[in-house]
Here is the input.
Amino acid sequence: MRPIAILQHESTQGPGVLLDHLEQHALPYRLFHPVAEGNAPRDASQFSGIVTLGCDRSVNEDLPWIHAEHALLQDALARDVPVLGHCFGAQLLARSMGAQVSRNLCANIGWSPVWVTPPAQQRMGLARQVTIFNWHYDTFEIPTGAVRTMYGSHCLNKGFMRGKQWGFQGHLEVTEESVRNWCAAGRDELLCAHGPAAQSQAQILDHLPERIAALRLVADQTYAAWTRQLDRPLRISVRDPAYYG
Here is the structure.
């Protein structure tokens, strides 16, 4: 099976729970660091799927590695390779589909409930309402031909899917350790963030183990549904009479 490409941009925003899911199901992957490497793969056909993670930069910035990653996603769309975008990754996927990415009305940082649309409930097996972790200032339009999968009170478009390509304006992948590290690294940012959807560090860390455990159930359901779309080699048992004709 071809590996899943995982594009990580920040040390505090790793694949987390997603990596656990892939390893548990023996799904091969390859980790890339476009920011540090200044580039990204170009040929999506080398991978069974592509995952793009969060980033502190805006997808609208004129940076070589963003252009390279944008080209990779466009190639994936042309070849119908499954893509899974988290936050920045979802924004870049939406932009690759021709949708606009712009500033949200307010900063969306911390834990918040989102509502899951009927198509997503059916496709991913999720409940009508779930709580996810957020850390973003921008938002995307729903791309042409895509359907909204999640929506929130302070950010309407929290997720979309178009065929095998899914994007989430939030973080399903976080672990207790990664949230603590992220808060520590972004302490000054948290002090400056204000608005109805911006939480303090204390609010984010309150009841963290329980929140992470609940989010993991959502992530496992979502990742299982997404990885079912991946092309896998056909396995034929040598004991199967049909194998010998």
Notes: Residues 4-231 form a domain with the Rossmann fold fold (CATH 3.40.50.880). The CA atoms of residues 164 and 228 lie 10 Å apart. Strands lie at 4-7, 29-32, 49-52, 83-86, 101-116, 129-140, 147-151, 159-162, 165-168. The two ends are 25 Å apart (CA to CA).
